[in-house]
Design goal:
heterodimer; A: 75% helix; B: 475 residues; alpha+beta; 5-stranded mixed β-sheet; 25 strands; 32% helix; 24% strand
C-alpha cells in the first residue's frame, strides 16, 4: 500500500470519528443547558474547550451561547473541526484513497457528505437540533457499517481503525480533562444536585449514562465514572478499550509487515500504564496530570505512526 | 417525435418507423410511460451523484463538481456497422503507431515527401528527445479514443484521433452499469455486447507492454495529477477496477535506475505507468522545469528501458490537428491500403490558398485550433454572430498556421428524452482502443456524446454536452 494511502485512510477515519464526537458533545451540552439554565454559558464554553477550538471560537464570538456554539461546532467553515469541515475532509481523503475502499464504503462516505452538506447549508435552529445531531450520528454509523461489512481485514482496515481509536481516545481524554475538577473529591458540592448533573453530562458525552447505571446500579460517584471512562475495557469509548484496539491493530500490521516500529513501543507503554494503575493511584498522581500526559502520548503516537508507515515523502 | 430536417436520425427512419438496429428498443419504448421514464432519468442522476462520477469545470470555482448529464435513450449500433467501424479503427491505430515509430526513427515518410518536413520540425507536439527511443513492441499509443461522426446510413468520418490521453472511458462503463440497473428487462430483450471487460483488458494490455527487462508479474500504476484534476474520478475508477495503485508525482522517485513508489514498507519499483498527465508535466528535469506533478528523472529511466510509460511521450504528434489532414496518406503509406474510415475534408490555414477560401467562407465552416481540445477556442461558423466571426477572422489572419477548418458536418441525430417525449439531438462516438505487443483490442461500444441543446453541434461536456449508453448489438 502507498504511504499516502495509509495516511489518507488514517485521517479519513479520524475525521469521521470527530464528526460523530462533535454531535455527541453538543447533545450532552444541549441537555444540560435545558435542565440547568443557570450554568448554561459555562457548559457551552466547555464544549468549545473539549473540541479544542477555543482560540478560533473567541476570534469570532464574544460569548458562548447556544446559537454561537451550535453554529461554530456544526457548520462554521473557518473551524477546521466543525462537522461540515471534517465531513468534507473525510470525503476528500476518501477520494484520495478511493482505490483502497470498497464501493460501499466510498458511497456511504460520499452520501454522508452530500446529506450533511445539505442539512447544514443553513443555521440549525434549536428546535431542529436533536434531529440534525441524530442525522450526523446516523451518517457516521452508515460508513462504519459499510466498513465492517465489506472491507478486507488487511492493512487498509488496520489504518482505518488506528485513525478511529486514536481520535476517540483523544476525545474521551479531553472530555474528562475539561471536567476533571468536577470529579475531584472536594468539600464544595459533594452530594449536591450540581455534581449529579455534571457527572451525568460526562457520561452522556460518551453515550455511557445507561451502561454505567446498568453496571453500577444507581450508585453514581466521581471515582467510578473516571474508572469507567479510563479503565473499563467493556466500554467502547474508554481509553483502555481504545488502546487495546490500537495495540491489536498495530500488532496485525507488525505481523503483516514483519517489522515493528517506534509506534508499537509507545502504544504498549500507554496501554500498560492504563492497565497497571489503579484509579486511586491515578487520583493520587493527579487526574489532570495523568490526562495531560495521556493526551501528549496519544498525539505523539499519531506522529510516530505517520513516520513509521511513511504517510508523507 | 419531430424530425430534424435534413439530418440522418439513427433511430427513426420516418414517422414512427424505427431503423433496424433500434426495432426491439423502439417497440419497448412505445409501450413505456413517459412519466415513468422521466422518473428513471432522475434516478440516474441521483445514482451518478452518489457514486461521485463528477467532473471539475476549469475556471468555474462555484460549480466545482458537476455531473455530466446522462440521457437514458441508448445509442444503438448494429453488429455489421460495428464490424466495419472496428476494422477501420484498427487500421488507423496500426498506422498511427507505425507513423510514430517512423517519425522518431528514420522518418521515411518525410523522405518520401508525403508530409512536409516543417510540419514535424516546427510542431510543439514533436518531442526531439524521443528520437531513437523504441518502446516495447514499438508501441507508442497504447490507449486511443478515436472520435467518429456519422452523416448517413454508410457515412462515417473520423473527426479526431485522440492518441495522447483520451478520457471518458469511465462514463462508458458507468453508463452501462446504470442502464443495467434501471432497465434490466431491456437487456434480456435486446442482445447487447458487454463492455465490462475493459478494465481487465486495460490491465493485460499494460502488463504486456512492460519493459523487456521485467520478468516477474509487472507492477502497474496509474499516474494522476491529483484530486483537483477534472478527470480524477476516472483515474481513481480505472486504478480501482484494474487493481493498480493510483499514484501522484510525489509518491514516486528514481531509485537505482527504476521508478519506485513510496509504500508503507518503503520504496517498491513499478514497471508500467499509465499516466494521465501531459508530456510537458511528466518530468521537470527533462521538460517543463516548473512542473510539480511529474517525477524528476523519469524520462531518463524511460529511455534506458527501466519503465514503460503509456502513452509514450511525444505521441501528440500523431493526433495533432494539422497532422490529421494527412491521415489518409499516413494510413496508405504504412499499411499499403486505402483508409477504411474517411477523414473530414480539412483546409490547412497554413496554406495560402486554403486560408483565402476559409476567410471567405467562415460563416459556414468550423475552425479549430491545431493544438486545442475540449471544444475551447473553436468557431462554429453557422452558429456564430457577425461579431464573433469578425473577431475570429483577426485571430486567424494573425496566426494562420494555428488553425484548420472543416465543413460543418450534418452530424447524425439520436433522440433524447425530453418532457414532451423524444427529440433528436446531434451525437458523436468515441470508441476505446487498447494496443499492446499482443495485439489490438477494441471494446464494442464507446462513449456517445450528445449535444443537449436543440440544433447544437458541440458535444463536449465542458460546453453543455451529455452522454448516452452505447450499444453494439450481437450479430
Amino acid at each position: 500500500m502507498l504511504g499516502k494511502t495509509a495516511g489518507g485512510l488514517f485521517w479519513m477515519f479520524r475525521y469521521l470519528e470527530r464528526s460523530e464526537n462533535n454531535a455527541r458533545l453538543l447533545e450532552a451540552g444541549f441537555h444540560i443547558a435545558l435542565t440547568r439554565s443557570a450554568a448554561a454559558e459555562e457548559e457551552w464554553m466547555s464544549i468549545i474547550q473539549t473540541a479544542d477550538v477555543q482560540a478560533g471560537f473567541l476570534e469570532r464570538h464574544d460569548r458562548a451561547e447556544a446559537s454561537t456554539v451550535i453554529d461554530y461546532v456544526l457548520r462554521d467553515k473557518s473551524n477546521p473541526s466543525s462537522v461540515l469541515s471534517v465531513v468534507e475532509s473525510a470525503r476528500n481523503n476518501a477520494r484520495l484513497v478511493r482505490t483502497a475502499l470498497t464501493r460501499e464504503v466510498w458511497e456511504a462516505t460520499n452520501e454522508c457528505w452530500l446529506t450533511l452538506k445539505d442539512a447544514l447549508a443553513r443555521p440549525v435552529r434549536e428546535r431542529d437540533l436533536p434531529q440534525t445531531l441524530g442525522l450526523i450520528r446516523q451518517q457516521s454509523a452508515l460508513v462504519r457499517a459499510a466498513l465492517h461489512g465489506t472491507m478486507l481485514r488487511n492493512d487498509i482496515y488496520d489504518f482505518a481503525r488506528l485513525g478511529t481509536f486514536l481520535e476517540r481516545a483523544d476525545n474521551t481524554a479531553r472530555i474528562l480533562d475539561v471536567k476533571y475538577y468536577v470529579l475531584l473529591p472536594s468539600v464544595m458540592h459533594v452530594g449536591s444536585s450540581l455534581d449529579n448533573v455534571q457527572w451525568e453530562t460526562i457520561l452522556r458525552s460518551v453515550s455511557a449514562q445507561r451502561a454505567y447505571r446498568w453496571l453500577n446500579g444507581g450508585d453514581v460517584n466521581p471515582k467510578g465514572i473516571a474508572e469507567f471512562l479510563i479503565q473499563d475495557r467493556r466500554l467502547p469509548r474508554s481509553l483502555a478499550f481504545c488502546y487495546t484496539k490500537i495495540v491489536d491493530n498495530l500488532a496485525y500490521l507488525a505481523e503483516d509487515y514483519g517489522e515493528k516500529g517506534g509506534s508499537h513501543e509507545i502504544a504498549d507503554k500507554v496501554l500498560t500504564r492504563l492497565r497497571n494503575n489503579t484509579i486511586d493511584a491515578i487520583f493520587d498522581q493527579g487526574l489532570h496530570e495523568f490526562l495531560e500526559e495521556f493526551l501528549r502520548d496519544n498525539n505523539g503516537l499519531g506522529m510516530q505512526i505517520e513516520q513509521d508507515y511513511r504517510f508523507y515523502g | 417525435m419531430q424530425q430534424a430536417d435534413g439530418f440522418f436520425d439513427e433511430m427513426l427512419a420516418g414517422e414512427d418507423r424505427a431503423r433496424l438496429p433500434y426495432r426491439d428498443y423502439h417497440e419497448w419504448f412505445c409501450d413505456e410511460d413517459i412519466a415513468r421514464l422521466s422518473q428513471k432519468s432522475k434516478e440516474a442522476e441521483t445514482f451518478f451523484r452518489r457514486i461521485g462520477i463528477t467532473f471539475n469545470v476549469y475556471g468555474q470555482q462555484e460549480a466545482a463538481e458537476r455531473l455530466i448529464p446522462f440521457d437514458i435513450v441508448p445509442r444503438i449500433i448494429s453488429g455489421r456497422e460495428w464490424a466495419r467501424l472496428s476494422r477501420g479503427i484498427e487500421q488507423r491505430v496500426r498506422a498511427i503507431n507505425a507513423f510514430l515509430y517512423d517519425i522518431y526513427h528514420r522518418q521515411e515518410i518525410l523522405r518520401a515527401g508525403r508530409i512536409p518536413v516543417e510540419l514535424i520540425a516546427a510542431n510543439e507536439a514533436f518531442l526531439p528527445k524521443m528520437i531513437g527511443v523504441a518502446p516495447p513492441g514499438n508501441i507508442y499509443t497504447h490507449i486511443v479514443g478515436t472520435d467518429i461522426v456519422r452523416t448517413g446510413e454508410d457515412q462515417f468520418y473520423v473527426l479526431e484521433d485522440n492518441a495522447r490521453t483520451p478520457s471518458g472511458v469511465s462514463y462508458m462503463l458507468e453508463n452501462r452499469e446504470t442502464m443495467l440497473q434501471m432497465f434490466p428487462e431491456l437487456f434480456s430483450r435486446v442482445r447487447v455486447q458487454p463492455v465490462s471487460d475493459y478494465p481487465k483488458n486495460l490491465r493485460r494490455s499494460l502488463a504486456a507492454s512492460a519493459p523487456l527487462a521485467c520478468t516477474d508479474k509487472p507492477v502497474v500504476a496509474v499516474l494522476t495529477p491529483g484530486i483537483h484534476n477534472s478527470a480524477y474520478f476516472e483515474h481513481a475508477f480505472l486504478a480501482d477496477q484494474m487493481g493498480a495503485e493510483l499514484v501522484e508525482g510525489h509518491d514516486l522517485r528514481v531509485i537505482e535506475g527504476r521508478i519506485a513508489m513510496r509504500t508503507t514498507r518503503g520504496y517498491t519499483p513499478i514497471d508500467v505507468i499509465y499516466r494521465r498527465i501531459d508530456d510537458d508535466y511528466l518530468d521537470p528535469l527533462n521538460f517543463n522545469p516548473d512542473s510539480l506533478l511529474g517525477v524528476p528523472g523519469i524520462f531518463d529511466v524511460y529511455r534506458s528501458g527501466g519503465i514503460t510509460i503509456a502513452n509514450a511521450p511525444g505521441t501528440g504528434i500523431a493526433d495533432d490537428k494539422a497532422i490529421y489532414s494527412y491521415m489518409p496518406d499516413i494510413v496508405e503509406f504504412y499499411t499499403g491500403e486505402t483508409a477504411i474510415l474517411k477523414n473530414v475534408p480539412t483546409w490547412r490555414c497554413s496554406e495560402p490558398d486554403s486560408l483565402a477560401y476559409v476567410l471567405d467562407n467562415l460563416h459556414e465552416l468550423v475552425v479549430k485550433e491545431v493544438h486545442g481540445s475540449g471544444g475551447y477556442g473553436m468557431l462554429v461558423g453557422p452558429a456564430a454572430s457577425k461579431r464573433e466571426i469578425s473577431n475570429f477572422r483577426d485571430k486567424l489572419k494573425a496566426k494562420p498556421g494555428n488553425y484548420i477548418a472543416q465543413p460543418t458536418l450534418s452530424l447524425s441525430t439520436v433522440p433524447i428524452l425530453t418532457k414532451t417525449g423524444l427529440a433528436p439531438r446531434h451525437v458523436d462516438l468515441r470508441p476505446f482502443v487498447l494496443v499492446s505487443p499482443r495485439g489490438i483490442n477494441i471494446t464494442p461500444g464507446g462513449l456517445t456524446r450528445v449535444a443537449l441543446k436543440k440544433g447544437s453541434l458541440v458535444v463536449n461536456s465542458s460546453q453543455g454536452g451529455g452522454t448516452k449508453d452505447t450499444w453494439v448489438l450481437e450479430e
